[in-house]
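User: Amino acid ABC transporter permease, Lacticaseibacillus camelliae DSM 22697 = JCM 13995:
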Amino acid sequence: MSAWQIVVKSLPELLVAMLKYTIPITLISFALGLILAVLVALVRISPSQKPVMRGLKGLTWFYVWVFRGTPLLVQLFLIFFGLPYLKMNGHAIIELNAWTAGILTFSLNTGAYASETIRAAISSVPKTQWDAAKALGMKKSLILRLVIFPQALRIALPPLSNSFISLIKDTSLASGITIIEMFQVSQQFAALYYNPLVSYSLVAFLYLMLTTVLTGVQSWLEKRTSRYLLSEGQ
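Assistant: Predicted structure for Amino acid ABC transporter permease:
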């Protein structure tokens, strides 16, 4: 079978896998990871020294340490294959299907990395912004929402966008826990047609197109969030 015939036969199923698994997994995992990242970042920058807050800080530090310090593939295998071995009375305490395990792992991994990005972005906003808002009588929650977060967003946007683009590519690891996303489909066609070069080149091209579009969106968002900044020399 010619390379073109393989492309024609493979492309529809690869696109279905992209729309059914790759993109949904990425969007859901990033959204959940971002929510988790904001919560973790707020805990870690909190000046409170109450025992409960100190305990939360230790817990969030441990979470970030573990998920940033171990490979994503190992995390996927640990959650999908490992957790069912936690048993009580002979029954598994936690047993997740592949979809849930994938979403959970990608979300936790993204949250760990993104929390450091958000924490650094919030910390980089000048303290004078806090002081000025407090002088106007604004509550802390209002200061964060209206003053600090908009400025931190502009700073955090490039690294968060890079994390999102990386997550698109990392979803290929979900094939290791039986999720039939684009990479696993390409593996099936490589085995079926005995031409891994064409199959893997095609899936690589699709990932490249996705990341190229996202890079363009990132550039637009960066310009959008910086539109009120004075250009250099003005």
